[in-house]
Amino acid sequence: MRVFKLKDQSLLPAFGIQMASVDAFSGTADVGAGYGVIEPEGVTAFHRHDECELFAILEGDGVVEADGGDRIAVGPGDLVAISPFDKHVLRNTGSGKLVFATAYWRDAKTAVTEAEKGASAQEEATDPAAEAPCFVFSTPPTPNGDLHLGHLSGPYFGADVFARFQRLLGKTAFHITGSDDFQSYVIAKGRQLNKTPQEVADHFSREITETLDLLDVQIDQFTLTSHAPDYERQVKAFFQSVAASDSVQRRADSAAFDPTTDAYLYECDIKGRCPTCGSGSGGNICEECGEPNLAYDMLDPVSTQTGATPVVRPCERYTITLNDFADHILGAMRESKASARLQALAERVLAREAFHVPITHPQTWGISPTDPDMADQVFWVWPEMSFGFLYGIEALGQRTGHDWKALEPQDNWKFVHFFGYDNSFYHTILYPALYKAAFPDWHADIEYHVNEFLCLEGDKFSTSRQRAVWGKEVLTPETVDCVRFHLALTRGEVERTNFSVSALQATNRELIAEWQGWLQALGDEVLERHDGVAPDAGDWSVDHQAFLQLLEQHRQQIETCYGSAGFSLNKAAETIRTLVRDTIRFAKGNRHLAGHAAAADRHRTTLALQLAAARLLADATAPLTPRFSEALRKGLGLDPASVWPRTIELLPAGNRVTLSDQRFFSEKVGENVAPIKVTDAA
Ligand SMILES: [Zn+2]
Prior knowledge:
Jelly Rolls, Isoleucyl-tRNA Synthetase, Domain 1, Rossmann fold, six-stranded antiparallel β-sheet, 3 domains, cytoplasm, binds zinc ion, nucleotide-binding, 17 helices
């Protein structure tokens, strides 16, 4: 036995306070111990860890703050237990030192159990806050062209599946997007087509909504920003709140101009190389590294309309100083769902010195600030979009009987953003800063789901080069499920991925041969042996029991992949594909008992379990391929899915099964796609 005089230990800075660690068991046991001192007004750094921890307060007064914002007062004699991954901080609220002793150890089983809880979508559904509305935003598309599969595979498809799954969990979830009419790219397209920006926006926003419909994307609110009632007045009011922040100023900073036409150059008016990574880039954002630029600071800049080298001179605009919001943005991101790539981008951008980003630009197409001398400028369309989401909530509320106010965002609103990596800066850095500037007291709860580019046969999709597979080329009511399943398998999630028509057609062949082939054979056998009525399970073999367990494992895995923490359509689709393959293998392995009178009870169980697998397949595909899900449930004598299954359920015995002549997939997928242009650079 040894006794440690804690007060004699030498203290070192750790976790934002002074700590000493005590080698209680001479490094032989997996238990750590320590001693900590927090000065008045001090607080430990926010953290989560995988160890179990117990700490005892020895001296002073404080509070522990837990997940969900609970605060509990603690003093001498109190013992605090921290489970793995519990967010916790200890704050000194007294006038003297707060002193504590701590012990912590790894317990693998507890850590895994807690991690499962954290990742489990089911767990979220039991949250009493489940009634709070969840607003799922996908970046409003720019109406300068129709949508191709690169666009569709990203935010729109992701947000659609996410919102559908949340609704199956019983949550109040809405998909909100719109048409980003005031983009400068709309003006550029108008010049090309000899049309006004309004004509261009109106034409392509119609095309875009048609294409989203063809992909079966359910949208609860689609805001046309150049037509939405009261939108302009509210945008101006929002910006007045933003401008009231000390971090928002009118500044005459450098800007790029065309020396021949004197045009102000930003976004598509200027191109060059990204000042951060050196890749070819347009003005204001680099698609490669995701970092913003200020247009005038690009390397080798060229005015796209005249080919002239821009000149740089000061131009007074409204700007926001992003550094002022660094702690707020990074702190919120660490606590929320945000990928490592997003966190790294925010760390880099917010480390820039005095980063003043213009939020108005000299321009006529858009909404002008109220300042009389700013009538020749408009709010930059990206900051405008940050308000557009709030406007969408109010407009949706008016139609659904909710008194939601765009200019009074609520703490219980959950925001989920879906966007491509090239728009990360706007969604994850600029918007939280603008919201903080406009509504300092609002605790915005925002999570981020980012996708990477889906490339087309080895090179980027390109609207301007007309190198794309357009949604309308491949989407029909007969092909949409195959396209959705293929996009789920192949969309870019952690890295860029590739699309090809031949791979889409291979997926279609798989769906016909494996999914449809198995379901038809199952339908045939139920018809032949049980007059087309689902049999009850009879005698269970060890193999049957193991298969039931396997189905439950697949169900749990799919639930995790659709849920917020583990959201991945790549993995959801892979697991669903494995579910079908495992069931085909199970059916093959157990077919030998078919037709043996003595084993009829056992073979009934084989059929009942295949029907349970088919039922799981129908439920698991409800968010992903809703038409297939509905058709399969109908073939099993079930209504369309309305609730996510919490366990594996057998199909009720006696249900009419009509699978033997069901055709779920069309033979004709991708036949009308125009030949893909060969890359210019190749
Ligand atoms: Zn770059």
